[in-house]
Amino acid sequence: MGQRAGRALLLLLGALGALGVRTAAAQGRARPHSLRYLFMGATVPDLGLTPFEALGYVDDQLFVSYDHETRRAEPRTPWAWGGATGQLWLQLSQGLKGWDHMFTVDFWTIMDNLNHSEVMKLGALPVSHTLQVILGCEILQDNSTRGFWKYGYDGEDHLEFCPKTLNWTAAVPKARATKLDWEVNSIRARQNRAFLERDCPEQLRRLLELGAGLLDRLVPPSVKVARHAASAVTTLQCRALSFYPQDITMRWMKDRQPLDAKDVDVLPNGDGTYQGWVAVSVPPGEEQRHTCQVEHLGLEQPLTATWEPSKSGPLVIGVISGLAVGVTVLLAGVLFRTLRNRQASRAAPGAYVLANLG
Ligand SMILES: *[C@@H]1O[C@H](CO)[C@@H](O)[C@H](O)[C@H]1NC(C)=O
Ligand SMILES: *[C@@H]1O[C@H](CO)[C@@H](O)[C@H](O)[C@H]1NC(C)=O
Ligand SMILES: *[C@@H]1O[C@H](CO)[C@@H](O)[C@H](O)[C@H]1NC(C)=O
């Protein structure tokens, strides 16, 4: 492990510990995890795509990328560097090299079966085609595993592997020829199944051990309700802040009855946590009948929040934060002036100092 990367990781883990971050293991609650590989390639290099590009994710964390030119797997997170992982990296690199080759062969097979390769070979039309593959596995809460292996061609679902039957499912009629080609090759199907059912969960378990503390941490959300009143419509917005992992359930209830489920918008915060929100329109005056309910693995029980009219709560916070902003502006002003004076006194007469903003 790189000394510096190692130390940075320890610092990060230390900081998480200091924040009172709990882990799923410490809570005695297993949560689902996934290992996913994404492959992509395109036929026209002018579009800036390489013939084969691969990314590997554990949950939402990119941990490996593979470069077609160098034929090497590159670790993308410090925790994946662990000293004892030589064997795992060797296995990952070998796997990716194999998939690099497989991808190119599959790409030609699919294009041949769609009569797209003739055009390519004649060089008649500079039409680009793309192939994407997603494969990997999940370990579910009950410790069972599920594998998946799908192809997308020109941005559409094309073929999906079924480990149980060793068959391929054609998502579109024109994928049938390739399905039949691949089903003739039972060795390949068995290899796919062995990877999905044995190797992939094994890799995932080892990666989870390496990323323990980071990948299984639980950061519960804090929940806030804000109100936006425009002429006829009042909107209540429920926000869940700074939580990990990404999965969250947020719903609005009216008189304790759940309202129709709406999609929760979830975005990464950039610091490894997420925020989510869900809004509801309410008739004016009915705000108090609405409650936002939030469920998250980091919470012992669901959190609820209601909009508080500004009697004391929000008003006091408003005053305090107003004060804080005032003080900050004041301090910034003092600092700016001090700096400017210092610069001015140091600068030669007539030299360009700072724009006079203050
Ligand atoms: C490809 O071309 C052959 C011969 O021209 C034709 O029989 C076949 O239907 C074509 N396949 C597709 C998917 O268009
Ligand atoms: C989950 O399954 C794996 C592989 O079968 C086994 O090694 C592990 O001990 C199991 N874990 C639990 C918590 O049952
Ligand atoms: C799927 O696989 C089974 C068993 O290998 C085979 O009998 C069946 O014909 C296949 N189905 C299709 C639609 O190819």
UniProtKB/TrEMBL annotation:
Compartments reported by the entry: Cell membrane; Endomembrane system
Q: What are the protein's UniProt keywords?
A: Cell membrane, Disulfide bond, Glycoprotein, Membrane, Signal, Transmembrane, Transmembrane helix
Pfam families listed in its UniProt record: C1-set, MHC_I
One cellular component (GO) term of this entry: endomembrane system
Identify the main location: membrane
- Keyword Transmembrane listed? The answer is yes
InterPro entries given in the database record: Ig-like_dom (IPR007110), Ig-like_dom_sf (IPR036179), Ig-like_fold (IPR013783), Ig_C1-set (IPR003597), MHC_class-I_related (IPR050208), MHC_I-like_Ag-recog (IPR011161), MHC_I-like_Ag-recog_sf (IPR037055), MHC_I/II-like_Ag-recog (IPR011162)
One Gene Ontology BP term is:
regulation of iron ion transport
Domain called Ig-like: residue spans:
221-304
Query: According to Swiss-Prot or TrEMBL, what is its membrane topology?
Result: Single-pass type I membrane protein
Q: Kindly give the PROSITE patterns that the UniProt entry links to this protein.
A: IG_LIKE
SMART domains xrefs = IGc1
GO MF term set? transferrin receptor binding
Question: May I ask which residue range the UniProt record assigns to the signal sequence?
Answer: 1-26
> Transmembrane segments in this chain: where?
315-336
Q: Which domain of life is it from?
A: Eukaryota
Q: Which PANTHER family match?
A: HEREDITARY HEMOCHROMATOSIS PROTEIN, MHC CLASS I-RELATED
Membership in a protein family = Belongs to the MHC class I family.
What's the protein called, per UniProt?
Hereditary hemochromatosis protein
Lineage, opening ranks: Eukaryota, Metazoa, Chordata, Craniata, Vertebrata
